[in-house]
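User: Design a sequence. Structure:
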């Protein structure tokens, strides 16, 4: 604990006293840590459980003398833990999100044009109270697990090794390997395992110690500062020089060609037909979408925007009347071709500032395939705990089913470098045909089966993020 406070105090004092050389870094890392178990009983020993970390990391740094730098850092860490010991054979995962706040010191060793970096940082993992329990049962075994995450500020330390490559725009891209160590356990878990033989019970604890591999990108402002200095030589004051550099950086040619790759959350809006008894109101499903498109500059900030995408369509069946809740079922993945236009909305043309991109167009998709699914939920009655309370089934088979669509949307590009942009996009699409009708039937409270249909015509919403590469941006 005291070492974390020492690192934090040193980094804070240097950051507050620094006047120049500030940088901003964003990165992503993935890591793995192993829990330890204590098994009691005569049953076979159970394996340790793995914990997969995925983290988004942001830091603000200041350059110090003699190749030293310090930074304040913040990260969001998602832990995927596996509720069942490996020998039970369950693939379910649990998720826990925490935030980390810390500070660190880094030392860089020049290697020709690149750098090897060594960093030591410390801070606190900000945790919340959380509990989760899981149960698996077959005719031969019964397994129960209970997880406990305790609220608090869990101190940690991190040792990091990295290799960095300066780019032409003076920014830096790097890879890093880090070792994270927590001072207190992240979670504790109790388990009970019973089969035809003797039972086992015991505990699992996860210390939080893990190994991470990541990539990061650092904005140094070195090129911007060099451009400002060049304008100052032409008897322009610093304020005016900064303004000129900002206008130049925001410039995008009307003839520019952009290639964009997006991935995001996809929500298809399927409609339940003839639901007079009000059991099911809709069958909308959340899934994913992967999209690749190009923007080919035309004139007056207009661009042609062809593209292709793979959209995942799901049925997310939820009981609206009895409140039991039913799981989702995958329908199909649909390959779509887009023909659209984009308008870059310049709100302040003289300063090259723009508000957003407006997009619209039509799409065509073909469905060729078959499938089906079903689900059920039960009520816990004392006399019959396995009584079926609600069940459903559906099947479909379509050959060369055409989905014509129209879409509108909005997007915003954030400049990472001269050529790379980070893009946030929203898209709403709506069907131009009756679509397809999927036969659907359900039984509620052991009453007569109800036969109805689900209409899927392509109505959907998609929120995505991605990277854009810009070609031909010359004036």
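Assistant: Done.
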């Amino acid at each position: 604990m005291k070492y974390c406070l020492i690192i934090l105090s040193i980094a804070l004092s240097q950051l507050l006293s620094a006047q120049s050389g500030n940088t901003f870094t964003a990165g992503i890392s993935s890591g793995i840590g192993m829990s330890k178990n204590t098994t009691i009983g005569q049953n076979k020993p159970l394996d340790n459980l793995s914990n997969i970390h995925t983290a988004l990391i942001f830091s603000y740094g200041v350059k110090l003398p003699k190749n030293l730098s310090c930074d304040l850092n913040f990260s969001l860490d998602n832990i995927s833990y596996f509720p069942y010991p490996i020998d039970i054979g369950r693939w379910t995962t649990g998720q826990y999100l925490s935030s980390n706040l810390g500070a660190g010191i880094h030392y860089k060793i020049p290697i020709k044009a690149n750098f090897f970096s060594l960093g030591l940082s410390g801070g606190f993992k900000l945790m919340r109270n959380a509990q989760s329990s899981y149960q698996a049962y077959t005719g031969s075994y019964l397994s129960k697990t209970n997880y406990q995450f305790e609220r608090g500020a869990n101190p940690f330390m991190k040792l990091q090794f990295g290799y960095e490559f300066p780019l032409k725009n003076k920014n830096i891209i790097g890879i890093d390997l880090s070792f994270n160590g927590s001072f207190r356990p992240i979670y504790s878990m109790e388990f009970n395992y019973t089969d035809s033989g003797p039972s086992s019970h015991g505990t699992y604890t996860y210390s939080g110690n893990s190994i991470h591999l990541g990539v990061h990108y650092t904005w140094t402002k070195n090129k911007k500062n060099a451009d400002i200095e060049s304008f100052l030589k032409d008897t322009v004051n610093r304020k005016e020089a900064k303004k000129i550099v900002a206008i130049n950086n925001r410039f995008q040619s009307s003839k520019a060609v952009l290639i964009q790759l997006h991935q995001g959350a996809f929500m298809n809006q399927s409609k339940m037909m003839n639901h007079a008894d009000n059991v099911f109101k809709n069958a909308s499903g959340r899934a994913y979408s992967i999209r690749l498109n190009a923007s080919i500059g035309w004139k007056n900030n207009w661009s042609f925007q062809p593209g292709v995408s793979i959209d995942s369509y799901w049925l997310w069946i939820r009981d609206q009347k009895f409140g039991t809740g039913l799981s989702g079922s995958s329908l199909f993945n649909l390959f779509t071709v887009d023909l659209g236009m984009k308008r870059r909305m310049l709100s302040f043309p003289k300063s090259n500032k723009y508000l957003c991109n407006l997009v619209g167009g039509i799409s065509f998709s073909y469905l060729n395939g078959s499938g089906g699914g079903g689900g059920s939920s039960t009520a816990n009655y004392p006399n019959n705990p396995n009584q079926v309370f609600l069940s459903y089934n559906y099947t479909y088979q379509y050959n060369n089913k055409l989905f014509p669509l129209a879409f509108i949307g909005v997007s915003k590009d954030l400049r990472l470098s001269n050529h790379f942009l980070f893009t946030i996009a929203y898209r709403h699409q709506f069907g131009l045909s009756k679509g397809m009708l999927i036969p659907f039937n359900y039984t509620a409270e052991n009453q007569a089966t109800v036969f109805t249909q689900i209409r899927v015509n392509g109505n959907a919403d998609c929120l995505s993020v991605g990277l854009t590469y810009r070609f031909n941006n010359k004036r």
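Helices lie at 2-17, 222-232, 238-250. The chain is about 10% helix and 65% strand.
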